[in-house]
Amino acid sequence: MKVISTNLGKSTTILWNGKEEQTGIYKYPTSEAIQLLNEDVANDTVIDRKHHGGAHKACYLYSADQYPYWKNHYPDLEWDWGMFGENLTIEGLDESKLRIGSTYKLGSALVQITQPREPCYKLGIRFNDSKIIKKFVAHNYPGTYIKVLETGTVTTGDEMILISQSENSLTINQYYQFLFAKTKDPEVIQLILSNDALPEYKKERLRNSLKTQ
Q1: Cys staple from 197: which of 2, 25, 101, 179, with CB 3.0 to 4.6 Å?
Q2: Terminus-to-terminus CA distance in the chain, angstroms?
Q3: Closest residue by Cα to residue 144 from 110, 100, 105
């Protein structure tokens, strides 16, 4: 896997339900290396700290391989890397093979795969189409968030190299499908609850939902 683009964003004003809001989803390529910190990316913009940033969402990665699919669906947009709000656009990123908990060398940083991106209304604003939310879910290639185990810098051309494969076989793709599935697979439930890399609140939410069923 190879870094195709490093992307940063500044605070941008958007209109949602008649009110002005700020967002950091508008990210664009930068020619400089970016620094991965423990809870975010240096010089990037994270507005909604409740849903973005933090130890388990320090940086968002999206696959360059998915861009042709979306360009075909939205040919009239002005396309550039960073369109999905990702800090790192990665060639060869495959969510069906990325195990939650696996660690990778990424530039000079050491990172861990943590969870898929769950799209919100701001992606619809970025694409000027609220229907992209359902399309994004159905396409099943959400990209991934990472935890930064060792801070470091990443630049275009760097490789994303597997250091340690998680013994828990839960992939980003599996977990993403599970989140939106009407019928929950018992085997996937066990993989989720036994995965140490997933945020504890995610597992606790699942436990609570199982109790009410």
Answers
A1: 101
A2: 41
A3: 100
Q: How many CB atoms lie within 10 A of CB 80?
A: 13
**Angstrom distance (rounded) from CA 181 to CA 65:** 25
What single-letter amino acid sits at 44? Answer: D
Nearest in space to 23 (alpha carbons), one of 125, 174, 166: 125
Rounded CA-CA distance 21/15 in Å is 6
Beta strand 88-91 with 2-9 is: antiparallel
Dihedral angle sign, alpha carbons of residues 18, 40, 157, 137: negative
Alpha-carbon span 96 to 75, nearest angstrom: 27
Residue 91 CB-density burial (10 A; 0-12 exposed, 13-18 middle, 19+ buried): middle
CB atoms within 10 A of CB 60: 23
pLDDT in single tens digits along all 213 residues of the chain: 999 999 999 888 878 777 888 888 999 999 999 999 999 999 998 877 777 788 999 999 999 999 999 999 999 999 999 999 999 999 999 999 999 999 999 999 999 999 999 998 899 999 999 999 999 999 999 999 999 999 999 999 999 999 999 999 999 999 999 999 988 899 999 999 999 999 999 999 999 888 876
CA–CA dist 182, 23 (Å, integer): 31
